[in-house]
Amino acid sequence: MPPFTIQIEASESSSKSLSSRHDGVSLSDPSQSNNTNIRSDGSTSNGSFTKDETKVVNHTKLLVYVSLLLAGVAISITAYFFAKNKEQNDFEAEVSKTFETIDLSETNVENTMGQVHSLAIAISSHATTMDQDAVWPNVTLPHFLERVSEAVSLTGSELIGFIPIVPISQKNSFEEYAAAEWIEHHEGEIPKTIHNVKGEAERAESEKDTYAPLWQVAPQASDLDIVLLDMATFSWFHLLEQDILEVKHTVMSGIVDVEYLLKATRPIELTEWHPRSVIMQEVSKSMTTGESDTENSKEPGGFVFAVLPWKQFFQNVIPHELHGFLVEVNDHCGSIVTYRIDGHDATVVGNGNMHDSKYDYLHMKAKFGSSAQYDGVETSTDHCHYIIDVYPTDELKELYTTHTPILFASAILGVFLFTIGIFFCYDCAVERRQRRIASIAKRTNNIVKSLFPKNVQERIMAEAIEEAEKAEQAGKLKGKGAYHVSMKDRLKETLASSMQGHQGDYAHKNVPPIADLFPSRTIMVCSTKDELNAEKVTYCAQSAHLFNDTVISHKFADLVEITLGPDTGELGLRIGLHSGPVTGGVLRGDKARFQLFGDTMNTTARIETTGKKNMIHISETTANILQAFGKGHWTKLREDKVNAKGKGEMTTYWLVKTDGPKSTSSGISSSDGTGTGQEDDVDSVDARAALYVSADLDAVRRIEKDASIGQVFEEITEILDLPKFDAEATARQSALTPITLDPKAAEQLEAYVHAIATLYHDNPFHNFEHVSHVIMSVTKLFSRIVAPEVSGDNRALHDHTYGITSDPLTHFAAVFAALIHDVDHQGVTNATLVDENNPLATVYNNKSVAEQNSVDIAWSLLMDDAFIDFRNCIYTTPAEYRHFRQLVVNLVMATDIMDKSLSQARKDRWAKAFSDSSDEYGSSLNTMEEEMERNVNRKATIVLEHVIQASDVSHTMQHWHIYRKWNARLFEEMMKAYRQGRTQVNPADRWYEGEKGFFDFYIIPLAKKLKDCGVFGVSSEEYLNYAETNRKEWEAKGEALVAEMRRHFAGWICFTI
């Protein structure tokens, strides 16, 4: 350890100085022997104390180990039971949801009752249309099979039949009617008389005055012996008949045996037994109601019944992934059947209660088919009514029983054991280190004892302790980050501390002097990553400003003269800045140091040596980066060329103060200013006259003919290419006289606007008045796009607005896009046009239908020969044509805020352009400049899209009464489409909540982005404030306003009708 090392060095140095002072002193002196004995006793005492301390430490470590182990076990057990209880709770919660099983099963009963009731009404209605005297019981429902087949499929019934009530007096006539009717409409031969299950003809009995023959049945009977079968021979039918005639509504039987009937209609023989019940409804003889009711019409003419297997009630009632519910059906007529439900399937388990008693606490019980139960006067006769009991099974429990509790507990215990292991290893390492330190200390102490008297030993030890404390204090300061601060902060601290006094009384002593920070004359600021960062270059320039301002303002003048002598107060400072990739390495020697190498360092040295006193000289590369980063007003072009050794002539700049003279930089431009008019040259600035652009109208006319319909969506680009800044072109533009528009072009412009106006439909909202409102909003935003702090400096203004202010064609394209963005709007959304299979949706592949249609119509009109002079004022070269077309397409398509792909692309573009990270350009200078230019254009694209988007909904970001006016118009337009049947949902039902969501998820975020992009001055604050205020107003008054608009629109409908 450092303290012991210091102690040894102190001993060696002290021995040399003491040798001359204590010559002749014998170390074997008795007094020394006594002192040795004393020290020996002290050592024994210290050893005893050390043993006691070691014992305490060991006990403490053991306590820590045990505590960690117990804590791990306790937390693991707690986690196990917590996870186990969570599984049990999930299991019980899922079981509680099985009440839905009862509800859905009840729905199946209701459906079957409805179908039976409908069939009974159909038969009564048919009988009503016939001659009453010649009807009952001779009634046959036409197309019985066709009518009943749908009911069979909907309810899952196995058999549905019609049973007329035949009085004894009409038995023979009914049998004759049945034989004639069957021969006329069916094939095969039916029994000639009403018979029982044995095929014997029914005889009239003294207590029996009617028969109940089965007349019509579905599915089609394969065994015709069941036709004219007297159903009264079945005991269950007799009980149902009595109940129905008493309660006058549909009644469901208990679990009965109807296998005899089913065999006659079933194509194959089934071996599996299924419990079944019968649902039966009486059929009135007539549908006559009111005063014309007669006793005859109220009499029952027969019955309709349906045979339904209980399995059908429990199918498709729980999710398919659940398995293992038991449902016990008790009809209270002596039958109990247990079903098992697995997903969508239900199977019979057997008769009786078959559930596991351990799940009785989760038992759920409910009445079943209550609407089809007997509710008449209680008699001694048993009337069936159903109770359903639902229980879980072990299989269901297993779905919610996993190994998660054990794994969770094991993982926690493992973490604690691992922690204990790490702590044990660390403790062993510390103990080993402490033993080594103690051994070294013991040897050192023995050496000191053998060489020096006691008083000398104490002084040496005191010095060693003092040195150790100093080293410890230095370590604390280093731990606080004194040597890990940014370059800018170190400069500030150093300069500030230097000015506290000439004697070096620094304000912060932990900050190293400037000489240690910058041992060479060149200031170097380097990124720790491979990418060159524009923000770091800007930071470097700020550091150079700070350093230069401090020195040349003579704050160091007195200190320099005192330190270096007279006539040195006029010394100046020369700083050079250059940007680019470097290679780092370590130079070895007496004092190893880090050094940088490469062409970037050489160029920096040339920039510094060719600079001037008290000025900051920067290379063209650094100037380009600063200008692209929006700091062009910091740079000033050096008038004379610099002839640097090994570099030849170089164009360089001076770095001026931020509040210094306005920039006269020529800027960055890939154009040579000659105005060649090449197709890919969209870097024109301001007016074409300023750039001497040569018109190529023949090429323009040719390219105009290539425009195609229906391809607008494919023309959308992620980034619009806006012109770069050209100082010379700007200067020429400023010298130009105002341009007067040609009278023909002005006349054609007016005619074009008039023609566009006629193409707008008379919609309440999407009309030409709305377009005028959008145009005024676009104009307003462009008029306020200049920030006060940069106005007046063309270069600064260009950088601040991402090049938008330098291109009049961009301004015109934005206004033009606002003019045409809703041409031929149908008054409905794109989704409605797609749902209607509108021809326009087919043309535009169901993507941004209205917007693409508007662009195509307006562009086709602009290409008409009647507007050729107007077009020549907009563009005269193919490059200008393409630039204008691309601007119009992107801006109009930006108004489609519902297309998910376009919306996501805009969000990604914003995130990429305005993210906090700037370290994404790569190490290549050319790549960096290209990516910077792309990012500036990306920001410009976003700003332009937000201008048109905000203008399209500007009523939401204006005064409340303006918002109310346009909101009511949009409501009217949507209601009109709903009344016309073009939309399926009434917009009034969700208008209030929809507007709140529109504010929260689109309007207010859009207004915030207008503010965040930082180019609109006070307008962005104004738009955001109005949006938030209108949101609050709507939340407070919106519901009442929607009700008022409902009434107003309803009154308008009545008036127009």
From TrEMBL:
EC numbers: 3.1.4.17
Low complexity bias: start-end ranges: 663-673
Protein name listed in UniProt: 3',5'-cyclic-nucleotide phosphodiesterase
Any single biological process term in GO: cyclic nucleotide biosynthetic process
Signal peptide region: none
Record keywords: Hydrolase, Membrane, Metal-binding, Transmembrane, Transmembrane helix
Region (Disordered): 1-51, 657-681
Domain Guanylate cyclase: 571-608
Listed Polar residues bias regions: 28-49
